[in-house]
Specification:
Strand order of the largest sheet: 1-2
CATH topology: Arc Repressor Mutant, subunit A
Protein name: Manganese-binding transcriptional regulator MntR
CATH class: Mainly Alpha
Number of domains: 1
Distance between the termini: 67 Å
Strand content: 5-15%
Largest sheet: 2 strands, antiparallel
Low-confidence stretches: none
Oligomer: single chain
Helix content: 55-70%
Radius of gyration: 22 Å
Number of helices: 6
Order of helices and strands: HHHEEHHH
C-alpha cells in the first residue's frame, strides 16, 4: 500500500503588510471624499443648468432626504467648498468649483475609457460614477494615454 504524499504548501497570495495597509488607507480616504465630490459636482451642474442649486433639488437628484442634504451642506461650507445664501440656494466657492471640475474630468475620462472598451454608454456612465472616486492618478493617466492613442 502506498503512503499518501503530502501536497506542497500553496504559495501565499498575501501582499506584504505595508502594501496591504496602504491599499486600505487609500480606499478609506476615497470613500470619505466620494460624497463630497458627488455633491460639488451636482451643485456645479445645477448652477450651470438653473443658475443656482437649491437644497430640494440636490435631495431629489441624489434620492436622499433634505435633512441629509442640509447636514452635508454644513460640512461643505465648513470645508470652504460652498456658500449658502438665504432664499438663494447654494453656490460653489473657488475651491468647490475646482473640485467639481476635477471630479467631472475624472468621470469623463473613466466613462470614455469604458465606452472605448465596448461598454454601452448607459452602463459606462453608471460604472464610471463609482470608479471615478477610486482610480489612482497613475491609472487615470493610463486611461488618458489609451484614449489618445485610439484617436
Amino acid at each position: 500500500m502506498m503512503k499518501p504524499t503530502k501536497a506542497p504548501a500553496p504559495e501565499s497570495t498575501l501582499v506584504d503588510a505595508d502594501t496591504h495597509m496602504e491599499s486600505f488607507r487609500q480606499t478609506r480616504h476615497n470613500r470619505r471624499t466620494e460624497l463630497i465630490e458627488d455633491y460639488v459636482e451636482l451643485i456645479a451642474d445645477l448652477i450651470a443648468d438653473r443658475g443656482e442649486a437649491r437644497q430640494v433639488d440636490i435631495a431629489q437628484r441624489l434620492g436622499v432626504a433634505q435633512p441629509t442634504v442640509a447636514k452635508m451642506l454644513k460640512r461643505l461650507a465648513a470645508e470652504g467648498l460652498i456658500q449658502q445664501r438665504p432664499y438663494r440656494g447654494v453656490f460653489l466657492t473657488e475651491a468647490g468649483a475646482g473640485l467639481a471640475e476635477k471630479s467631472r474630468e475624472r468621470h469623463q475620462v473613466v466613462e470614455s475609457f469604458l465606452c472605448a472598451l465596448g461598454i454601452s454608454p448607459e452602463i459606462a456612465r453608471v460604472d464610471a460614477e463609482g470608479i471615478e472616486h477610486h482610480v489612482s492618478l497613475e491609472t487615470l493617466n493610463a486611461f488618458r494615454d489609451f484614449l489618445r492613442k485610439r484617436e
